[in-house]
TrEMBL record:
It catalyses: isopentenyl diphosphate + 2 oxidized [2Fe-2S]-[ferredoxin] + H2O = (2E)-4-hydroxy-3-methylbut-2-enyl diphosphate + 2 reduced [2Fe-2S]-[ferredoxin] + 2 H(+); dimethylallyl diphosphate + 2 oxidized [2Fe-2S]-[ferredoxin] + H2O = (2E)-4-hydroxy-3-methylbut-2-enyl diphosphate + 2 reduced [2Fe-2S]-[ferredoxin] + 2 H(+). The keyword Iron-sulfur applies. Dimethylallyl diphosphate binds at H53, H86, H136, S234, S235, N236, S279. One of its GO terms (biological process) is isopentenyl diphosphate biosynthetic process, methylerythritol 4-phosphate pathway. Isopentenyl diphosphate binds at H53, H86, H136, S234, S235, N236, S279. GO terms for molecular function: 4 iron, 4 sulfur cluster binding; 4-hydroxy-3-methylbut-2-enyl diphosphate reductase activity; metal ion binding. Catalyzes the conversion of 1-hydroxy-2-methyl-2-(E)-butenyl 4-diphosphate (HMBPP) into a mixture of isopentenyl diphosphate (IPP) and dimethylallyl diphosphate (DMAPP). Acts in the terminal step of the DOXP/MEP pathway for isoprenoid precursor biosynthesis. [4Fe-4S] cluster binds at C24, C108, C206. This is 4-hydroxy-3-methylbut-2-enyl diphosphate reductase. Residues 327-339 have a biased composition (Basic and acidic residues).
Length: 345
């Protein structure tokens, strides 16, 4: 294939690579939890829902012996079940106990923090407005902590239809993987109706989601195209496409893998930005970079806006089990792995 750049364009075809990108600490913890459980106990290890929202990760773990189920009643009594990074409601935990399942809770600690906020506000009998996407697993788990107190607000427009018992006793919390800008617009609209709306005690949108959006905002204005690696059910990946377009990218597309990149997108593109959602292993990004190199793009230039060094310990149940069985190193691993040369901007 031969691409033609716009008339008057004589600069080399560039790749701007966002950093941070890819695996966050919570995702890495959850994936390693399944891997360590398989190593220590052998297959099958059951996982409720997708451990993280990424096709490649799920398929790889399935090949190693993980069995993904929708609900606990699909798991044989007494078997081992991992809860996904998105968290579960108390009702799901009770169902697992009723089936005598040996559970490993891989819920991201930042999601657990929001669950605890909801529990506390519910004890205080406050109306809780949960900003998030209807039907998303994280939202279902969080709302399930106090269904009588929680209303899900899915968009700024939905804020106009919210009703509460006492406008002086209402608080908002949020799904951890949302667009920061859209979330704050929803909060603004809610506060127009409920001036005494209380904020959560700390920011609910996770550090990784915010960092990836900030990095995309920095590179997007220079880009003819931004490629976001991530699966369709990954909320934070989908948001990155929206953020790129809002920040000035001429085009932006989400792909699961390099093979999804269409040559038509690259035609006429002088600068391509590349990033990935928080549940995406670095190998998938590397494949996209190789494809771009094959199409005549230069060595990637890293656009870094933050450095992430947060690491979470593996789930307590797994650490205890590994200690008993001698199942190997129970330490988490660094989330980012790079093998391609990357030149900082």
């Amino acid at each position: 294939m031969t691409d033609t750049l716009p008339a008057g364009t004589d600069r080399a075809r560039r790749v701007l690579l966002a950093a941070p990108r890819g695996y966050c600490a919570g995702v890495d913890r959850a994936v390693v939890a399944v891997e360590k459980a398989l190593e220590a106990y052998g297959a099958p290890v059951y996982v409720r829902k997708e451990i993280v929202h990424n096709k490649h990760v799920v398929e790889t773990l399935r090949e190693r012996g993980a069995v993904f189920v929708e609900e606990t009643d699909e798991v044989p009594r007494g078997a081992r079940l991992v809860f996904s990074a998105h968290g579960v409601s108390p009702a799901v935990r009770d169902a697992a106990v009723a089936r005598d399942l040996d559970t490993i809770d891989a819920t991201c600690p930042l999601v657990t923090k929001v669950h605890k906020e909801v529990q506390r506000f519910a004890r205080d009998d406050v109306d809780i407005l949960l900003i998030g996407h209807h039907g998303h697993e994280e939202v279902e788990g969080t709302a399930g902590e106090a269904p009588a107190h929680v209303q899900v607000v899915g968009s700024p427009d939905e804020a106009d239809r919210v009703e509460v018992r006492d406008p002086a006793r209402v608080v908002w919390v949020s799904q951890t993987t949302l667009s920061v800008d859209e979330t704050m617009e929803t909060v603004r609209r809610l506060r127009e109706r409920f001036p005494l709306l209380a904020d959560p005690p700390s920011d609910d949108i996770c550090y990784a989601t915010q960092n990836r959006q900030v990095a995309v905002k920095k590179l997007a204005p220079e880009c003819d195209l931004v490629i976001v690696v991530g699966s369709a059910n990954s909320s934070n990946s989908v948001r990155l496409v929206e953020v790129a377009l809002q920040a000035g990218a001429r085009a932006a597309h989400r792909v699961d893998r390099a093979a999804d990149v269409e040559d038509a997108w690259l035609a006429g593109a002088a600068t391509v930005g590349v990033t990935s959602g928080a549940s995406v292993p670095e190998i998938l990004v590397e494949d996209v970079l190789r494809l771009l190199a094959d199409r005549g793009f230069g060595e990637p230039e890293e656009v870094r806006t933050a450095t992430e060094d947060l690491m979470f310990s593996l789930p307590r149940e797994l650490r205890t089990g590994l200690s008993r069985t001698g199942g190997g190193d129970d330490r988490p691993r660094p989330a980012e792995r790079r093998t391609l040369p990357i030149r900082p901007v």
